Please model this.
Amino acid sequence: MSTKRNLTAEARRELTVKAVIELSAGDDPATITTGDIAKHMGVTQGALFRHFPSKDAVWEAVIGWVGERVMQRLDAAAAEADGPLAALEAMFHAHIAFIVDHPGVPRLMMGQLQHARPTPARRLVRSLLFRYRERVELLLSQAQAAGELRQGLNIEAAATQFIGTIQGLVMQSLMIGNMNHVAQQAPGAFELYCHGIHPDGEVRQ
Model:
């Protein structure tokens, strides 16, 4: 990856963000140095630090970029769906597609959550996960009110399971070293998830 001349500062920052995500697809994000990033971009470390005051600032920009892009994609997918349950399914598959397009993102997110220091990037990850969960719980509540889900469903537990289903697919894909595995398994995984929340699965006393 090499940068082009005469780019704006904003464009160079975005190139840096994309470089980190690309590197994270093949390496542990915790081991990626600013030297690695600069080499991947074909610039000097000095050039890199003209746009970021510190390494923490680089990671903060990366997580900010990821959060903005993934939420835009999920919201757009949900907006085109016919009904809250369909919107939930659209979000699920849009999230999977984002992971396939950016395979370094799961490693980045998990790495920041495991960070010992309360860095700005770690706080952004936690905020993103909170907003994501709110979206899921809202759609689940709307689907339940519309009669698309069983009335006794625990919305908080269902939201946890939704997120856990995606995380499980990601972990399996990381273990086998093929992030495309996520997309292959996603339809079946969502179908199983629906069996647990659908009205037909009503638990009777």
Q: What stands out?
A: The mean pLDDT is 89. The two ends are 61 Å apart (CA to CA). The chain has nine helices and no strands.
